[in-house]
Amino acid sequence: MARKILTEHIHVPGIETFDVYRKQGGYTAVEKAIKSMSPEEVVEEAKKSGVRGRGGAGFPMGMKWGFLAKPEGVPRYLVCNADESEPGTFKDHYLMKTIPHLLIEGMIVSSFALGANKSFIYVRGELMYVIRILEKAIEEAKAKGFLGKNILGSGYDLELVVQPGGGAYICGEETALLESLEGKRGNPRNKPPFPAVKGLYQCPTVVNNVESISNMPWIVNNGGEAYAQIGIGRSTGTKLISASGHIQRPGVYEIELGLSVEEFMNSDEYCGGIRKGHHLKALVAGGSSVPILPANLIMKTANGEDRLMSYESLSDGGFASGTMLGSGGFIVFDETACIVKNTWNFSQFYHHESCGQCSPCREGTGWMEKVLHRIEHGHGSMHDVDLLVDITKKIEGNTICPLGDAASWPVASAIRHFRDEFVWHITHPSEATAPGAAYRGDMALV
Amino acid sequence: MTDTPNTVAFSSERLEKAQEIIARYPEGRQKSALLPLLHLVQEQWGWVSSEAMDYVAEMLDIKPVEVYEVASFYTMYHLEPVGKHVIEYCRTGPCCLMGGEEVYAHLRQKLGINPGETTADGKFTIKEVECLAACGWGPVFQVREKYYMNLTNEKVDEIIDELSK
């Protein structure tokens, strides 16, 4: 049985309540940090743990904390990014609704480490029912003296505020999130200055994902070095994977980083294999934004090595033959899936979610959607395939925030690995537009 | 359809809630309450009218345009009257892999409306939305705060019958 850091107690009945969570060892990290550690020591443990941002970027959290400016007399803020909206990703949703006190405890020790007295949890507005669960957990923690004024008699004060979003993927980008939290449209900010220097209300701010912060109680209790022992290489610790698509057992699974993709896909502890009677065609390993991989590059890298669930192994081969761990949104496609249709579907998402601030993204996402629409509906021309590649190149790297890249990569990678399928849609429009049609050319299936 | 509010003012309970929300933020940062207050508006009237936006602007001491530009940016706010139940249906890729398109076709046929439309009796509006972060439990739609997951045609029939009562 793999080690669990976040989900060990998730199935204990009543774990959403303070009392049951406390009985399972909850809030001991708050006691330890506040009574026997300095804020700097907590930051040090986060650095030693090597835990990386679990929202998708994978940037070391302790290092990010180290950048926080500390000018005298200026408040500092911790903001938790719970705007989970990347297609294929639903782990934070699951974690918050099932074991809300884990995030609350993580917020308390992290806020203490950063010297924040008011911290925010920005939750996508659609999850209003989860917001109510979190608010209830906060009330309970407050009543027990773990939040509010003079926590556990230490003199440290902390107030937690849960903020609803309004339905905008872009607010998962940290500076757009801060704009939204200030009551504005979610337009990402130009950087620098980075939030660590000028963030919320122009004050030094750290923005971290739900899962990243939820690792902190364990790290405080067991030490950063113990955390770094778990996982593989620079991919330390565990990761929540949201598994969806054509598999036997969709759901959220906590894995030790370094588990083989093959085991994750086929073990009954995890995905349980492809749907009965079907074959693996393609995989999006880290949420809709990361490059899609064909079957022959999923279990093994281009060099024939086992592909592992880690930041390094999934990106082995660069974009030519690899992908990214991203947010851990693991979307599986069997041979009935149409890659052109799925790419068109994703392109609609990015077009809808582009904030409209940068013209390459605003215009480019709409243009890609239109071209993909006509290919999918049997009106494409051979020129369209190269046109799409050209558009992706003109968006990528030319926008304020990574949404432009996120919109380009799924299209570029689908054409890189499934060009034949795009061409077939253009040369065989009547077959391709038949209901339920999916290209069954000579591509490799597993 | 939900009526346009005649007199735009929060109920006493919501007014209290609004004041509690406004007090959460540091002095001078009350504009941060804008998104939560717009959710309260929608909770009370079912949609966000321009009168309600003016009311919120006054409450936060900001210009009305600061409210309009925000309300029109975020997709959760309905800027026109909607049916009693707004079915927000996830149309994004992972849900489609789980059979989302077939269930969606069934839903539209059952209600006899397309996305953006409201049934003649004013009970249902369908709105297409992007990923609701429930991909492994798809197909999914949301009605107000409730998520309906692992949908099938039969399940949709039951839910619609239940909501129709």
Automatic annotation (TrEMBL), chain A:
Family: Belongs to the complex I 51 kDa subunit family.
Catalysis: reaction(s): a quinone + NADH + 5 H(+)(in) = a quinol + NAD(+) + 4 H(+)(out)
GO molecular function ontology, one term from the record: NAD binding
Enzyme Commission number(s) of this protein: 7.1.1.-
General function of this protein: NDH-1 shuttles electrons from NADH, via FMN and iron-sulfur (Fe-S) centers, to quinones in the respiratory chain.
InterPro entries xref list: ComplexI_51kDa_subunit (IPR050837), NADH-UbQ_OxRdtase_51kDa_CS (IPR001949), NADH-UbQ_OxRdtase_suF (IPR011537), Nuo51_FMN-bd (IPR011538), Nuo51_FMN-bd_sf (IPR037225), Nuop51_4Fe4S-bd (IPR019575), Nuop51_4Fe4S-bd_sf (IPR037207)
The NADH-ubiquinone oxidoreductase 51kDa subunit iron-sulphur binding domain, residue ranges: 340-385
GO BP annotations listed: cellular respiration
Protein name: NADH-quinone oxidoreductase subunit F
Upper classification of the organism: Bacteria, Pseudomonadati, Bacteroidota, Cytophagia, Cytophagales
Domain of life from the UniProt record: Bacteria
Entry annotated with the keyword Flavoprotein: yes
Keyword list, A-Z: 4Fe-4S, Flavoprotein, FMN, Iron, Iron-sulfur, Metal-binding, NAD, Quinone, Translocase
Class in the EC hierarchy, top level: translocase
Cofactor(s) the protein requires to work: FMN; [4Fe-4S] cluster
From TrEMBL, chain B:
UniProt-annotated binding residues for [2Fe-2S] cluster: 90, 95, 131, 135
Keywords tagged on the record: 2Fe-2S, Iron, Iron-sulfur, Metal-binding
One Pfam family, short name: 2Fe-2S_thioredx
Cofactor: how and how many bound: Binds 1 [2Fe-2S] cluster.
Molecular-function GO terms, alphabetical: 2 iron, 2 sulfur cluster binding; metal ion binding; NADH dehydrogenase activity
Entry similarity comment: Belongs to the complex I 24 kDa subunit family.
UniProt keyword Iron-sulfur, yes or no: yes
tRNA-binding keyword on record: no
Coiled-coil parts of chain: none
Cofactor(s) recorded in Swiss-Prot or TrEMBL: [2Fe-2S] cluster
Protein name, as recorded: NADH-quinone oxidoreductase subunit E
Gene3D superfamilies linked: Glutaredoxin, NADH-quinone oxidoreductase subunit E
Source species of the chain: Dyadobacter jejuensis
NCBIfam families assigned to the protein according to its UniProt record, in alphabetical order: nuoE_fam, PRK07539.1-2
